[in-house]
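Aim 2, interim progress. The first record below pairs a target sequence with its structure tokens.
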Amino acid sequence: QVQLVESGGGLVQAGDSLRLSCAASRLTFSNYAMGWFRQAPGKEREFVAAIRKSGIKTYDTDSAKGRFTISRDNAKNTVYLQMNDLKPEDTAVYFCAAEFERNPFQRITVGPEYDYWGQGTQVTVSS
């Protein structure tokens, strides 16, 4: 069965950086768009960033605001989220997800359209 395993979360101070990783197994990674979502306490899950199998990237401008960078390494079946200048409002559980990419124009920002999800990694940013 497909597994997505996130890592790299933790407790940091405002202004610090973290790099999240998501290792995928039992799927043909290069056929999937990969996304990062987050869910803060009491809030709905929200889209953060995604990367197509072509490498084209999409960001939520409100949450990412030029501070986050998504990347992928198909040789390692891994997607990354580099987060810089972290703020307390970035505190959330961060989830990676995989969506089979049938065409290069399909949406990759909508959570329910993703096929597989990881368990999440907690990011806590103190002020």
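The second target in this work package is listed in the same format:
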Amino acid sequence: QVHLAESGGGLAQAGGSLRLSCASSGRTFSGSGMGWFRRAPGKERTFVAAIAWSGGSKYYSDSVKGRFTISRDTAKSTVYLQMNDLKPEDTAVYSCAAEMYGAPIRNYSDSFYYDYWGQGTQVTVSS
């Protein structure tokens, strides 16, 4: 069993920054990637960013490209999301997800690619 725990959410002003963390515990991480998704109020969950665990290739949605940066610490089995130049439309519950069985990383933007999910952390951006 894998447990994912997010932290770092909170309130920020437009133009500000927040850094989210997602720590994996339980099994030794052996999958192909981890990602971040978000769900805004009244909307469906959408892909934000993903990172390949081996090699560190990074993928972003168009809405956050150039503002958000995903990174990983393999020794700590932790993935981070640095969010800069935040906008009110970034307000959402952010959840991290992990693929644990080696599925092709090419499906990184599809929620069905991931096997485990965290509970989520609220990010609120005020204008």
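Residues 69 and 82 are 5 Å apart (CA to CA). This observation will shape the mutagenesis plan for the next reporting period.
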